[in-house]
Design a protein that fits this description.
Oligomer: single chain
Protein name: Pyrrolo-quinoline quinone repeat domain-containing protein
Structural class: mainly beta
Distance between the termini: 54 Å
Strand content: 35-45%
Keywords: Membrane, Transmembrane, Transmembrane helix
Strand order of the largest sheet: 2-3-4-35-34-33
Helix content: under 10%
Number of strands: 35
Length: 518
């Protein structure tokens, strides 16, 4: 029997339950952004759908002069299913980024080979994840998984979904150049893939290996699964899909075991489901939500060799109107979950290795300037698809950004994890903090995008201790319409003073990948 943690009373001004992706307003069609200066609401967790592809960016000033090269890239031989049509890519480079003031002392950015590209993608196509593999960045979209060279942005390979279907899930990490993926050959009435197959992808070559059906019992649920969580653990590929889990042989894809989701803490009503799954040190960390069962959420380990759930810890609420639900794991080390509370609130829970609560961060009211960004970071994370995170943890602090408006400003903020109190905040008078990228020395390296559609991107540094602004480097980055890209829809990789970014949801007016830095 696992432990039980009664509900702890946090700030009662907590936010509506965040969706796992997007950060787009409720009641608006996909791709429609709110008026200038408005904050997109996070919506009701977990039915939120991210916006795709129909945003008309306000024209900015004339873009900087760059060398343009049109590359018509025919599919290479390593692609499993050769596409009949070449993929058009616009590739631009800029070797001389300019410095400017951005909240701290400016510093000339040294000469570098920056690049950006735009892909012709289907409208409303969703993003599933991104990884850095050797000297490439790999991004998974529903239609294809593609690798781009970090040095120049040129396409290294492209693997379309088998049999004209759509990808619907991927592992959060690459292991020995292998990535487990899921795909569907059929589609729902909404155009989502029915997620019924698993495969192994070689991320060095883009070749798909074994392909196996996913046939997990889904209880009495009338809905068809449109996503899956997959992770490599040792010689097993573990799949989590709503009400059941399975283990496949890494080499062959043959199913070794299958088990329904039953809470290891007891008191299960038979309707528990996996909502999150991330690789831990020795086992998988899973989050479980119960539809009727009480307590409502559970954190546990999953043994990849047998599928056995153990070390369970339950969390319940003293107030039935403030019950916990939909725990989405967004970090494994340390374990962090974004949890819905009641009908319209949410909270980040930081855990230790035994799943005891270390701290709780109130995420605020979505749709307001003070709420914390809780989107999937370019990933449509519904139905077991795993979200990204827009925070980092260092020195006992939880560093993140407030809600990111389409146009306007926001804040970089830091919370003391132990108390949950906001330790410092850094308002940006002329920009939007998009992502804390890393802690280097005593500084938080942060991507800051312009408050309007015609400014430059900035790599800014702020003191970890108090948020004091430090050096800033600026880089011009323009879409084909001349404005700034919607940088909150990208996944990021930062090291060696350089940033690589790949877009999740498709947008015909925006960039799909870029690299800036030294």
């Amino acid at each position: 029997m696992g432990q039980q943690h009664p509900g702890w009373q946090g700030n009662q001004n907590q936010p509506p339950g965040y969706p796992p992706s997007g950060g787009f307003p409720q009641g608006q069609p996909p791709g429609q952004y709110p008026p200038q200066g408005h904050y997109p609401q996070q919506g009701q967790y977990p039915q939120q759908q991210p916006g795709y592809g129909q945003w008309n960016q306000p024209p900015g000033g004339p873009p900087p002069r760059k060398k343009k090269l049109w590359l018509w890239l025919a599919p290479v031989l390593v692609i499993v299913v050769a596409a009949a049509v070449a993929v058009p890519i616009v590739l631009t480079s800029d070797s001389d980024p300019a410095p400017s003031q951005a909240g701290g002392p400016d510093q000339p950015a040294p000469a570098s080979k920056n690049w950006q590209l735009h892909l012709d993608r289907p409208e409303y196509e969703k993003g599933l994840g991104a990884w850095e593999v050797g000297s490439t960045v790999v991004v998974a979209h529903e239609g294809a998984i593609t690798a781009f060279g970090e040095a120049d942005g040129k396409q290294a390979w492209r693997a379309p979904a088998p049999d004209g279907g759509k990808f619907c899930g991927a592992g959060t990490r690459v292991v020995n150049d292998r990535l487990p993926v899921a795909f569907g050959k059929e589609q729902t009435e909404q155009g989502d893939p029915v997620c019924k197959f698993a495969a192994m992808l070689d991320v060095k070559t883009g070749q798909l290996g074994w392909q196996q059906p996913i046939d997990l019992p889904q209880g009495a649920s009338p809905s068809k699964p449109t996503g899956a969580a997959l992770e490599i653990m040792g010689d097993v590929v573990v799949i989590g899909q709503k009400y059941a889990t399975a283990g496949l042989d890494l080499a062959t894809g043959r199913q070794r075991w299958m088990k329904p989701v039953v809470k290891p803490t007891g008191g299960d009503s038979g309707s528990s489901s996996i909502t999150g799954m991330v690789p831990g040190k020795q086992s998988l960390i899973v989050s479980i939500s119960g539809f009727i069962s009480d307590p409502a959420i559970t954190f546990a380990t999953l043994d990849p060799a047998t599928g056995t759930l153990g070390q369970g810890v339950d969390y319940s609420s003293k107030d039935r109107g403030e019950g916990f639900s939909n725990p989405r794991l967004v970090s494994a080390d340390p374990p962090v979950a974004l949890v819905s509370r009641g009908a319209d609130k949410a909270v980040y829970i930081v855990l230790d290795d035994k799943f005891d609560k270390v701290g709780a961060i109130d995420a605020g009211h979505p749709g307001t300037a003070e709420s914390l960004a809780g989107d999937g970071v370019g990933v449509d994370a519904t139905d077991n698809r795993q979200p990204g995170r827009r925070f980092l943890i260092s020195g006992g602090l939880f560093v993140t950004v407030t809600a990111i408006p389409l146009n306007g400003t926001n804040k970089l903020v830091a919370y003391d994890i132990a108390s949950g109190a906001r330790k410092w905040e850094r308002p940006l008078s002329d920009g939007r903090a998009i992502m804390p990228l890393a802690v280097e020395g005593d500084s938080v390296v942060t991507l800051v995008s312009p408050a309007k559609s015609d400014g430059d991107q900035r790599i800014a540094r702020f003191a970890l201790a108090d948020g004091a602004p430090g050096p800033v480097e600026t880089y011009p980055l323009r879409t084909r319409s001349g404005g700034s890209p919607i940088t909150q829809d990208f996944r990021y990789f930062w090291h060696d003073a350089r940033l690589w970014a790949v877009r999740g949801p498709s947008n015909k007016h925006d960039l799909d990948a870029f690299s800036i830095g030294k």
